Amino acid sequence: MANVRIGGVDLYEEVTGTGEPVVMLHGGFCSLESLAPIAGALAASRRVHAYERPGHGRSADIAGGYSYESGVADALAYLDAHDLADAHIVGYSDGAIIGLLLAMQHPERVRTLTAISANLDPSAYDRDPAVNGPILPELPPAGRAVHSPEAQDRVSPEREAFERLSPDGAAHADAVWEKCMRLWTTEPHIDPTDLARATSPVLVLAGDRDTVRPLHSLRIAAALPNARLGLIPGTTHGLVAEKPAFVAALIEDFLGEAVTG
């Protein structure tokens, strides 16, 4: 557990295990704690690298807004900082979008990509509250639901983690949430035809009740030249927390086949 200098900013990182390199990319308004069960499973046989982007977890925030392109630049710089010519990439939500862009723009740096709950544009979200609670809900204080128990389960743990971990202090959560909301409602804008440039093997995962509509996840997988799709039954956009062992097993199986195939 240490910091790594990326783009002139110190980012918190964790590196565990030995073997083939895996780089974990967390979701928006999340910390590495959200991916800990997956990282722990993968570290049993691989070297797992994970870092927290600016304003997330134990990494201090930066001036200005967030963008997926800056996320790609940070990912490339992180690979370079560890002398990794390429790596297996496992991304969740915002991290999955960064992973898709990385695989499209720099396919030689990506051995495989696992994209969990990614979307190509803001229209991908299911706006029916009955499906997965309100889309992009307001950030509540820790422990208080906004519209439903589902919204509380999805949002409050992230706020609690922010208040506990952030070097910027608990009150800065609202500023980071606003910047995340701005990102989620304006980006990304990925043309499905451009996914053909992502030639690495890709595992597309999503919940069958994900905020990202299942048909959108199918569209992503169908546009990739070497992809498979998994919809996790009985899960939402929080599938990593809801069924971590199942998700980890699917990733392990995918990586095993990619290496031996």
Automatic annotation (TrEMBL):
Domain AB hydrolase-1: from-to ranges: 22-249
Keywords (A to Z) from UniProt: Hydrolase
InterPro entries in alphabetical order: AB_hydrolase (IPR050471), AB_hydrolase_1 (IPR000073), AB_hydrolase_fold (IPR029058)
Pfam families according to UniProt: Abhydrolase_6 (PF12697)
Gene3D superfamilies referenced in this protein's UniProt entry, alphabetically: alpha/beta hydrolase
A Gene Ontology molecular function term of the record: hydrolase activity
Name listed for the protein in its UniProt record: Alpha/beta hydrolase
Organism field: Leucobacter alluvii
